């Protein structure tokens, strides 16, 4: 109950009552077996567009923690946030408040840098997804090259796991990357679906889907949990249904974009509806 009261003290909309854990549990039971993690980075992006130089302003909005509360009320089983080294959207305080207030799991996306690893070890999210990070990119471009960076990744993975954090690697759908992830002993991989989502011809779409299918099968054979994300929206999610062994989709930009027109709770529920009847 402590977490419920913590959320209720935030500046939630008047129509949004504190979460009832029993009702929340029932909603989760009704969901598809394919789970949804909502990335709320772009809620922070909008806030930073106006308040980057005034982080302590009483007017700083929108609040990512309020967004997280709405997402979990709508049925999301995870909240995803990427703490980048340049702090372009999520801030350290955001991650701390998410850890203190959300009822569902916190999935922290992060680059393998000493500063951010230290933050993860202090906050102890439920999961960490290690991603590549380039300062000049608008968003994460491509998967982590586990094969090339195995030596640097291994000690970080061990430190996180020793702290009780489950570790995922965001990878391109190639067998080499899946095998390398399995050898490192992580619990999960998140398959990069960006090339499928942005395919501009049926030939490329078919090839990318086949790559994802093969990677998902290989990961499942290695007893890795298989997640997917990047570029998934309300239209191309029909293609995602053709990828086997998926446990969770992590989706952000499309949901936040849709929320501009229909509201965040409705946007999350619409995505969950599009995920229903996944056969795995």
SSE topology sketch:
Blueprint: H1 2-8, H2 21-30, E1 35-39, H3 41-51, H4 64-74, E2 78-82, H5 92-101, E3 105-110, H6 114-123, E4 127-130, H7 150-162, E5 166-171, H8 175-184, E6 188-192, H9 194-197, H10 202-221, E7 225-229, H11 237-240, E8 246-251, H12 253-262, H13 264-275
Parallel strand pairs: 1-2, 1-8, 2-3, 3-4, 4-5, 5-6, 6-7, 7-8
The CATH homologous superfamily is named: Aldolase class I
User: What does the average pLDDT come to?
Assistant: 89
Computed over alpha carbons, the radius of gyration is 18 Å
Distance between the termini: 35 Å
Main-sheet strand order equals 1-2-3-4-5-6-7-8
Please give the share of residues in helix.
Answer: 40-55%
Summed up, the domain count is: 1
| N-to-C series of helices and strands | HHEHHEHEHEHEHEHHEHEHH
Number of strands: 8
Q: Could you list the spans in which at least 5 consecutive residues all have pLDDT below 50? A: 1-32
Which architecture does the CATH hierarchy give at level 2?
Answer: Alpha-Beta Barrel
What general outline do the C-alpha atoms trace? globular
Instruction: Report the top-level CATH class.
Output: Alpha Beta
Largest sheet: 8 strands, parallel, barrel
Task: Classify the fold: give the CATH topology.
Answer: TIM Barrel
